[in-house]
Amino acid sequence: MQRKIEVAQAYGAVVEGEALVSEEGFSPRYDLDRWTGLITKPGHKLEGQSIVDKVCFFPSAKGGIAAGWAFYDIKWKKIAPKAFIFGVTNPVMVQGAVFAGIPITAGWSPHPREVLKTGDRVRVDPARRLIEVL
Amino acid sequence: MDLTAEERGILAGAGGEAAKRALEYQIEVGRFWGAKRLVPVTNVHMMGDIEVMGDAGLQYLRDEVARDARCTVPTTTNARCIDFAHCDRLGQDPAEAVKERELIQCLRRMDVVTTDTCINYQTVYQPHLGEHVAWGDTGTVIYANSIFGARSNFESGPAALAAAMTGRTPEYGFHLDEHRRGSFAVQLEAKLDDLADWGAVGKLVGETHQDYFAVPVFHGYHRTPGADELKHLGAALASYGSMAMFHFIGVTPEAPASVDGFSEKISISEKDIQKVYSGYRLGDGDARLVVFSGPQQSLLEMKRLAALFEGRKVPAGSSCFVTTNGAVLAQSRTLGYAQTLEAAGVTILEGVCFYILQNLSPMRRANGWTNMVSNSAKIVNIIGAHRFNTILRRTADCVDIACSAKLK
After folding, report:
1. Is B283's pLDDT higher than 80?
2. Given an 8 Å threshold on Cβ–Cβ distance, is A62 in contact with B242?
3. What ipTM was assigned to the predicted interfaces of this complex?
4. The domain spanning residue A111 has which CATH number?
5. DSSP 3-state helix, strand, coil percentages of chain B (rounded to 5)?
6. Which of B326, B372, B311 has its CA nearest to residue B113?
7. Which chain A positions have a beta carbon within 8 Å of B387's beta carbon?
8. Contact criterion met (CB below 8 Å) for B405 and B287
9. Residue B153 and residue A70: Cβ atoms within 8 Å?
10. Which candidate from B78, B158, B173 shows the least CB-CB separation from A72?
């Protein structure tokens, strides 16, 4: 079986990195320590894990407007992920990722859990709307 | 994307470097969402303060000023993170206060009107039916779309600033008719006598339907709701459900004639509301922090609070905060509401919102606060990141708690 995921919407350059797969949604304001890049929200399914330089898979986006500046902030602090891969996202995540120059995609088929797991190396190719497991 | 001659001119540099960069950025965002064009906007409301922007964001604003960035449409600011009159007492970081002052100066040099309010829709600008705007703070967006029938997506700080530079925004999401139709029906059987009850409705509906593109349609309510009630409903829907629009039959301008044809119909009863209140953990039972904020208080909310606090006192060891904007505070002083609240020991913060206060987590630890009680379902939801245990209570109960330090 070819291990790949097609995405519906995408922005950014081609990147490769280690996958971090979450069963829970994400907000850079409420789940993330914006100084270390660790997920620190008590009870988050990725609590204690680092998003730094990872290709992050989240089923949904959480949180409000303030997230827009947060991606730029973490990119500047060199603790940004390689890419954000969302199942469902909202405008704020996209505005924030594009502003920071972080690749972002939304809408996935098949579901990531069917073809990959945390730790796998993946390539994100926004122009081809494709994520491949390497 | 189809660009007008004027937009092609901006890309060629006719509007200056800042406008060119802003439009290039907007086109990328628009492409992601499949926008076919940009739409002119008449008004921009943006979030920009040192707590949300950080040093990187401040440097970006300095660079924008150096590029001669100028707003092309009226642009106002959302609530910010530092109240300069209270920052020492609150234990806010003096170095961050210096940066916040510089940040405000940068915005003013770009011709941003620093109103510092999250209730612009009650106090600054009320767009009309069909008017396209670019607003940030989710509570302002859901109010604009739902109550006024204006059109806005959630525009985060960088996106709103770009709209201010170019006077337009990509046409996707709630700028389009197809996303503004109701998606499920909610019958309101509960009495909803207090603002907190309206927030509880927003929590119940939002938590179970988390989706930016979900649009609930409320119906069956026994009277006409007021502006502050709809404000708390909207703020909670946006906070718990990430929603940007609702309809209310008989109240909002784009509501459908009936809920016939909706496959999903739910109802909210008095019992459902009671269950929300009984669902909060009382923690250690300590109730030394009561907050009226998120959104900022309107003049009529200030009036009601003044009446409830009249002749009473927040005891030593307890803290009660009210946040509002400069305009409401000035009028509250003229009318005596502010003096009544302050005589009762309430601290009124101006131009801020409690949950975005700079240094809030250290403030919580320094004061030994564990529980935070509020009549705002929104703030009860979002302040959790600072590790408060939060409890929603009705307005009069919140005042009783503030004056007794006892939960009930």
Report:
1. no
2. yes
3. 0.96
4. 3.50.30.10
5. 45, 15, 40
6. B326
7. 42
8. yes
9. no
10. B158
- Cα(B356)–Cα(B323) distance, integer angstroms: 11
Contact B56 A75 (CB under 8 A): yes
Q: Give the pLDDT confidence score for residue A32 in this predicted structure.
A: 87
Under an 8 A CB cutoff, do B54 and A99 touch?
Answer: no
Structural domains in chain B, CATH included, are: 5-176 (3.30.499.10), 181-277 (no CATH), 281-404 (3.30.499.10)
Mean pLDDT score, A89-99: 96
> What is the domain count for chain A?
1
CB contact under 8 A, A98 and B384: no
Which residue has 């607003």 as its token pair?
B135
Q: Which amino acid is residue B25, in one-letter code?
A: Y
Chain A residues touching B54 at Cβ < 8 A: 34, 69, 73, 76
Which residue of chain A is at minimal alpha-carbon distance from B21?
Answer: A99
Of B31, B158, B172, the CB nearest to A69: B158
Which among A9, A69, A75 has CB closest to B52?
A69
List, for residues B29-80, the tens digit of each pLDDT value: 999 999 999 999 999 999 999 998 999 999 999 999 999 999 999 999 999 9
Is B156 close to A67, i.e. CB distance below 8 A? yes
Residue A91 to residue B173, Cβ atoms within 8 A:
yes
Of A32-36, B88-92, B336-340, the range with the highest mean pLDDT is B336-340
Report how far residue A93's alpha carbon sits from residue A75's, in angstroms, rounded to the nearest whole number.
14
Alpha helices in B174-313 (DSSP H): 195-207, 227-241, 270-278, 299-309
A34–B contact, CB cutoff 8 A: yes
- The per-residue pLDDT for A114 is 95
pLDDT band at residue A1, thresholds of 50, 70 and 90?
Answer: low
| B210 Cβ contact partners less than 8 Å away, ≥ 6 residues apart | A25, A60, A62, B240, B241, B242
* HSE value, Cβ hemisphere, 13 Å, CA-based, for B112: 32
Quote the domain boundaries for residue A123: 4-133
Task: Report angle CA B213, B219, B223 to the nearest 5 degrees.
Answer: 130
Q: What is the pLDDT of residues B5-20, one digit of tens each?
A: 999 999 999 999 999 9
